[in-house]
Amino acid sequence: MFPDDADTLVQLFLSRAAADPDRPAVVHRRNDTFVPVTWGELLCDVRRAAAGFQGVGVAAGDRVVQVSENRYEWIVCDLAIMLAAGVHVPVHAGLSGPQIAFQIRDSGAKVVVVSGGDHRAKLGRELAADVTCVTFESCSDTHGGPDAMLWEEFIARAENSAGADVARSSPPRQKGDSLATILYTSGTTGDPKGVMLSHRNLLSNTRATVEAVGTSDEDLRLSILPWSHVFARTCDLYTWLACGCTLAIAEGREQVIANCAELAPTVINAVPYFYEKLFRHLDQHQLLETPGSLQSLLGGRMRLCCSGGAALPRHVEQMFDRQQLLLLQGYGLTETSPVISTGTPTHRKAGSVGLPLPGVEVRVAGDGEVLSRGPHIMQGYYDNRDATGQAIRDGWFHTGDLGRLDDEGYLFITGRKKEMIVLATGKNISPVNLETLLVEDPLIAQALVVGEGRKYLAALIVPDPDALKQQIIERRIPVLSSHQALVHPDVSALYRERIDRRLANVSAGEQVRQFQLLGRGFTPESDELTPTLKLRRGIIQDNFAKEIEAMYE
Fold first, then answer.
1. Among 211, 149, 150, 207, which residue's Cα sits nearest to residue 176?
2. How far is CA 206 from the centre of its chain?
3. Bridge-partner residues for 328, per DSSP?
């Protein structure tokens, strides 16, 4: 599966393309149909793009920012930047112009690749004149910034250059410890930091993940997560390179189920939010207990689903068990390339995030913090020695997560150090545990527990609109609008009952005394969720400050 002598991702890709030039590598939507691209065709496109980067002056170690949704050209860019010995800096496509500009400036990028006019317009005058801008799609209005070079022109200009000859013959020499990418953290607790990951970091984690989970070159892997996040980068893209299967690019978050029906994939990686949506869909159609309904929803051939990025609700885990479909939960961070531990087809335990990967060390410090050591640990934060020194001490990376290891070595994550709530009574409480319990109820789509410095806990609750509507009809609650529903005493009583039921087995100090039903959910567009759908607690509490204060009056 792996070429034994591959020391970099470039070598891995070149070996794969040489071994399987005529096999389908990628399937993506083009002109209303999914079309295949072979490994040989992909290699040709990557070499041409690498020549393009060299043609605009990208040399070893130069940073190239890419701002784009998932698309075929994203993969070409990633591999071409590395083939040219550059450093890929992928930026989440949903970020605002100033947020994108910060990462461009902080990384010192020489070239910026954007998908089209929308992303170019976000930057406006934020993009420095000495930064080359390339766009996959034409964009006439640059909002006062420098012009953008169209992708085809970018490629054509380098076709007959010296750079093309270099890219087509042999790649620039790189080693395992050469910097491959800088990925910026989500910024849930402050400004984003640039995580430096080497080829060895990513390749070792890819190898260990494939060894633990297992995969096949016959798989059709449907990729739905943004590749600007390391979970999808390693566990979709690089495991795909390693095993030589076919990678299908989902059209978007709302088209995943339709893509499953059309393509019948066998493997999928996703965050708990996606699996929760599957649960709610089956629940609303009264199919939770119908054998095979989940498999049918996912196209009929699914053999393996993996979850990461956040805690997996227990009721979702139980649904997969009842439906006899394998769902593995893993754990990791951007700084760990990312996988630290994962369940496997033969070793998994309810509620745990599995066993440490081969070659990965895990221990729990005296204060409960999870620490890890091994070849997967980042090189450090870009241009930030102080933050690096705080995160990596005596060779151990401090995750910031709280957890425990059981007698069999399974890891359980119990909370986040910086997210601990300290009540006025002095009691320490992990809000994540309570929020996980709350969203297990079909009536609750999202929840944020608050109470720092207060006498008791309260919660902001986002109702599931379809489930609530069904309950209103069944209970004949007289409401004429969604706003009336949120304030109707019968609806409030219904949610009081559900909250108490979900928290029946936690301590008295962990009970939610007050709650507020919200008329909208937390979204990445409002900056209340990270691109990987984690809660940005500070921003949510700022945005709903009045509602929170009302619960403590």
1. 207
2. 16
3. 306
Question: How far apart, in whole angstroms, are the C-alpha atoms of residue 198 and residue 396?
Answer: 17
Cβ proximity of 288 and 319 under 8 Å: yes
Helices (H), 343-430: 385-391
> Does residue 375 contact residue 408 with C-beta atoms inside 8 Å?
no
- Span 21-50, pLDDT tens digits: 999 999 999 988 999 999 999 999 999 999
| Torsion angle of C-alpha atoms 18, 20, 21, 23, degrees rounded to 10 | -170
| Rounded Cα gap, residues 251 and 347, in angstroms | 33
- For the whole model, what pTM was predicted? 0.86
Enumerate domains of the chain plus CATH numbers: 9-174 (3.40.50.12780), 202-416 (3.40.50.12780), 420-551 (3.30.300.30)
Reduce the DSSP state of residue 95 to 3 states and report it. coil
Residue at token pair 């999870």: 370
Residue 150 corresponds to which amino acid? L
**What's residue 418's pLDDT?**
82
Own/partner pairs for 143-149, CB < 8 Å, 24+ apart?
Answer: 145/120, 148/114, 148/120
pLDDT in tens, 243-277: 999 999 999 989 999 999 999 999 999 998 899 89
Which position has the token pair 């943004």? 226
Place of tokens 């590598």: 25
Cα separation, 326 vs 304, in Å, equals 5
Structure tokens at 498: 């559900």
Q: Which tens digit of pLDDT belongs to each residue from 415-445? A: 888 888 988 878 888 898 899 899 999 999 9
Q: Please tell me what DSSP assigns to residue 418.
A: G
